Amino acid sequence: MARPRDPTGGVWGPAAAMVGGIQVRQVPTERGVLSPAQLLAALRPPDDDHQPLSAAVIIENTHNWHGGVAWSEQDLQRLSETARSSGLAVHLDGARIFNASVATGADVRAVARYAGTVSFCLSKGLCCPVGSMLCGPAGKIRQARRWRKMLGGGMRQAGVLAAAGLVALATMAGRLADDHENARSLAEGLAEMPGIDCDLSRVETNIVYVRLKNIHAADFLTACSGNGLLGGEYGSDLVRFVTHHGISPADVRQAPGTCRKALRS
Fold it and tell me: What proportions of the chain, in percent to the nearest 5, are helix, strand and coil?
């Protein structure tokens, strides 16, 4: 997986080593799409006893840190074939897999079929209050249940959340195109402002990253929140906005004015 300058420090890496005994190797990419050549170059040599064996490749679709960029089905197929021919399992971190499906026009089953296991969020674009799903062969899910139990991840009365998840899957995926359209409109409005850099080529789904030139991200967001606009701070100059259900075109039209005032502050 890859990200452009991660200010958070990638805290999941130590957890993977401590809990799962896994050595994670991140691969920098231009747009979050890992090529077969990059995968092959990252494989650990199996005859070197000083290095861990490569066992799996994890891809993220859409890729958060690259602005919500979606993988094409062709890129997914190429990477999957290369990974499997190298003896690697393929896991798809599809937290926003339905956004990827809408952005590329591919059926969500087509997006998922190139991975052996797939995870996705019922929250985020699908708007559940909480919840995520792991999908895969029965044997893998059996193992996952055991790991969840060992880590204390059991829940009682989970049917209440499951009901919300069923409603989300049935009614919310089809409206994600509205979120994408709103994000694009927001990005185009922000890209015109002095003091803000916004790469429109990366605005494919519902995520908009902007880089601030003359104001700290925390100060900018504090000024924005005073006028009802919320975003996330990622380091001193990087801000993320996300559109979702409940954010209307009228809200998006108002947002650039709020940002303009925050820049002046």
Answer: 45, 15, 40
Q: What mean pLDDT is reported for the chain?
A: 92
Domains and CATH numbers, the chain: 12-173 (3.40.640.10), 175-264 (3.90.1150.10)
- Give the start-end residues of each E strand in the chain: 56-60, 89-93, 117-121, 132-135, 196-197, 207-212, 232-233, 238-242
Question: In the chain, which residues have pLDDT < 70?
Answer: 1-13
Convert the pLDDT of each residue in 140-190 to its tens digit.
999 999 999 988 888 888 888 899 999 999 999 999 999 999 999 999 999
Give the tokens for residue 6. 């991660």
Q: What is the dihedral of CA 110, 74, 136, 25, to 10 degrees?
A: -150
**Which amino acid, one-letter code, is at 184?**
R
Contact 234, 216 (CB under 8 A): no
